[in-house]
Amino acid sequence: MSFASVRIGLYDSVKQFYTKGSEHASIGSRLLAGSTTGALAVAVAQPTDVVKVRFQAQARAVGGRRYQSTVDAYKTIAREEGFRGLWKGTSPNIARNAIVNCAELVTYDLIKDTLLKANLMTDDLPCHFTSAFGAGFCTTVIASPVDVVKTRYMNSALGQYSSAGHCAITMLQKEGPQAFYKGFMPSFLRLGSWNVVMFVTYEQLKRALMAACTSQEAPF
């Protein structure tokens, strides 16, 4: 909720800000808007991502549960690592979210515009589904390396890696380039289904809200 509300909810508004209200947005303006809202989302919601990753990792850990609840996880991380611990991995996460946001939103925009301009589809459910599925595949290809490094670094022991860059170099040296695409198929299934559900829902809600606003402005 915290990530999507910022990075998706503000995308159109930020895009209009960069294009000064023009209806024809360039690829550069779209990329800039995607990067901006992706970075803002991380600044707001990074602690929720850290807690999520730690919770998922403790299921595989030996020696019992480290955190007893979500609130306990926030308290324990802040007590043991300081408040900076809750923002651990912010830099790679900003890079990851900027890339994911650009890949998801800009690719969806471009695919949808292409389909509509070529008269291959109309602006309805099949078009939204196709555009979202294509955006999900492109996002997985582009974002997988950053996603793998982000997860590995955020879940690392204190002092294991000096930075996200050090983590990426270590992975490359020890495991080779293929390490950056570990879990590609489950990532694609996750991002593909996420994009379809999110964009189709988003388009229908936007249409419903616009129709409601129009009916309120002209009730007779």
Automatic annotation (TrEMBL):
Query: What Gene3D superfamilies is this protein classified in?
Result: Mitochondrial carrier domain
Solcar repeats by residue range: 25-114, 123-208
Where does the protein principally reside?
membrane
Q: Which domain of life is it from?
A: Eukaryota
One GO biological-process annotation of the entry reads: transmembrane transport
PROSITE patterns, alphabetically? SOLCAR (PS50920)
Question: Sorted alphabetically, which keywords does the UniProt record give?
Answer: Membrane, Repeat, Transmembrane, Transmembrane helix, Transport
Q: Give the protein family.
A: Belongs to the mitochondrial carrier (TC 2.A.29) family.
Record-given protein name? Mitochondrial uncoupling protein 2
Chain's gene name:
LOC103269488
